[in-house]
Structure formats: C-alpha cells, structure tokens
Amino acid sequence: GTHPAYYSVYDGINWTTPTTIPLGASAGIYVNISLIYDGQNNTVMAAWSDDVAHVPYYSFFNGSSWTTGAEIPLGESAGVLDFVALCYNAANNTVVAAWVDITSYLAYYT
Q1: In which band, very low, low, confident or very high, does the pLDDT at 69 lie, cut at 50, 70 and 90?
Q2: Which value, in Å, is the radius of gyration of the alpha carbons in the chain?
Q3: Contact call for residues 4 and 29 (beta carbons, < 8 A)
C-alpha cells in the first residue's frame, strides 16, 4: 500500500500540524526519508525510495511548501534497495544522492 510522507516544522516553541509531502508519481515511501539543508538557497531537500518501483525521488521545501516529488535518474542501477542518502556540497552548491542497488548490491550515486 501507499506510505505517505509527513513533515512538521518547529519554530523554537511549537510544531506545526503534520502535513503530507506531495509525492508526485511515487507510490509512497519505502523505508525512510533523507533530508539535507541547502544554506545557499535556504531550502530543505528530501529524498526517498518509491514503495513499489524502488525508484529514487526528491522534493524541495522552501519554508512554506514542498515541490511535487520527482524522480532521480537511476542510470544503470536497477533500483534502490532501502533508502537514498543525501549530501550537500556547499563549495559548489550541489547535492549527491547515493543508494545501494536492489539487485547487484553495488553502490550508485548521481
């Protein structure tokens, strides 16, 4: 079944009411969500593995809303085994996504 993604924002005193992240074509979250903060663009990026197709997805949060989830290209990978790890490189304002392949168990990144 579909496993939605929820988020809540803490303002130093209270948490907002949990709301769903728009997953786009993703059927839902397989294991967990990875988050990173992009200080240059003042955004948060989330990434996850699709619950059915095991395709990596991502979405950006600008402080008030999320973009609709979009696929991260698999390249030669057959799919994501568990979760997508993210790392933000401030030196060149890029994000690296990495995962273990669902069939070969090799590590892939983009």
Answers
A1: very high
A2: 14
A3: yes
